[in-house]
Amino acid sequence: MKGSWWKERFFYQIYPRSFQDSNGDGIGDLKGIIQRLDYLKWLGVGAVWLCPVYDSPNADMGYDIRDYEKIMEEFGTMEDFDELLEGLHQRDIKLIMDLVVNHSSDEHKWFIESRKDKLNPYRDYYIWRDGKDGHEPNNWSSFFTPSAWSYDEQTEQWYLHLFSEKQPDLNWANENMRQDIFDMINRWFDKGVDGFRMDVISVIAKNPALPDGVGDGYVFAPEHFAFQPKLHEYLREMRQKCFDGRNCMCVGETSFVNTCNANSVVGDGRELDLLFQFDIMDMDGAGSKWDTIPFDLSKFKEIISAWQQAIDWNTLFWGNHDQPRSVSRFGSTASEELRIRSAKMLAAAMYLLRGTPFLYQGEEIGMTNMPFERKDQLRDIESLNLLREAERDGRTTWAWNGIRSKGRDNARTPMQWDDTPNAGFTSGTPWIEVNPNYPAINVASAMEDKESILCFYRELIALRNASEILKWGDFELLLPEHPQLFAYRRTYENKSVFICCNFSDGDAALPEEVLGEILLADGALGSNLAPYGFIVTAAQ
Ligand code: ISL
Ligand code: CA
């Protein structure tokens, strides 16, 4: 398995709506991405994960798909897509698409048919049930709404949606539905795409009895829809019908995965090539993600070493389009100096681990959370729903704190390219406001500064791309009890690289083990590591 292209390449995640607008309508588009391909090449990335670009009414920004084989009009045309794919391949950059098949849009033709009558051939493509005494079929809550069921008067039944009411869940128990999905995947592969990131793939199989979750009121009940036995059957069928014989990869967004069940889906020849686990993303939430608790370094070390040991090959990431900005969350924005150093430190801490790195757009220039103040600045259905409910229960202060620190729109403000109006993202009015810090934080100025976060990322990516040790070496946690430092060793064929990162805002003494030829560093002064300083060395 050494040699699989998806183990050797640094991935870059693009959120197309916010990457680059080419026609002044304020919405990022495919032609805009094409304009920036040389930037991606310059940075050294070897693969792109493109968030959904399919036709969608955008209730959940493209994660509600109306037509899996049509490009969203605001993003361009299929010709633009072909040109993008060709442009990437010419530069030896692979492309993986988002595959959102736990649910479709309620405007998808299958659902339009399905809701017409109980005998419609598409009825069973979705999950319909009778109510119980005028109530929902069970007490499940959804990710975005209090109840996971919506009532449809036409046929007097309820349909299941684990996300918004505009995202009805597909019924994977239906063989025709599965075959339609597999055919669609194969048509994208025939076009030349190199793989898929599979949205909430771990929840496609539901407990067929749809039992109540334990508790009062609406209950979030992943025990009945995540990692169900049928999941493995569906994934194996997909593997066989779509992936076998192709040099394509898939990475599953495996919500609710843990170190015990992970190897049931990944590993040599298994169902998925890679998985995204969310233990790091969840560690600063107490119960709900909205109740933020401080970063805990010892917990972080535990999670990283548990996962490095649990599976052969991890995904490495600090964020994505659903998460706040990593430097605001895990680094420091107390000063410009600390923002820059801590953003570099986070990159060194995460992306030199064993696994495949996924960097989210804007992270490479240290983009920060957005100082949202008003509801009309928000676009994300999750934040807007949260606020609506909090208003009802008189918890608006709590909700706003949550939205500012964890809201998904933090990651969705436009990419900051330069210091011209709207950060060079659009000549029109952007669909979501640009972060006001763009005159200081942008690609153009970072390219001119050798000490910038951006130039550091480029250096780090080049180092990783060229290093057998960093690619294939094993992982060993060092200084497990140290209260400030996260340190580890990567070893391959008796050669080692040491990584030592100060996650605190105080000085730390540099341990002797890490002394050697310096490959990367910032804030390493003599035998001292400054706040958020780090050093990467090759063993003498
Ligand atoms: O964003 C989250 C928490 O606030 C996650 O729980 C997220 O909803 C979950 O990881 C699933 O995310 C994916 O599917 C959603 C979509 O809204 C997200 O953007 C996508 O990444 C439904 O398709
Ligand atoms: Ca546009």
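^ 6-O-alpha-D-glucopyranosyl-D-fructose complex. The longest strand covers residues 528-538. The mean pLDDT is 97.
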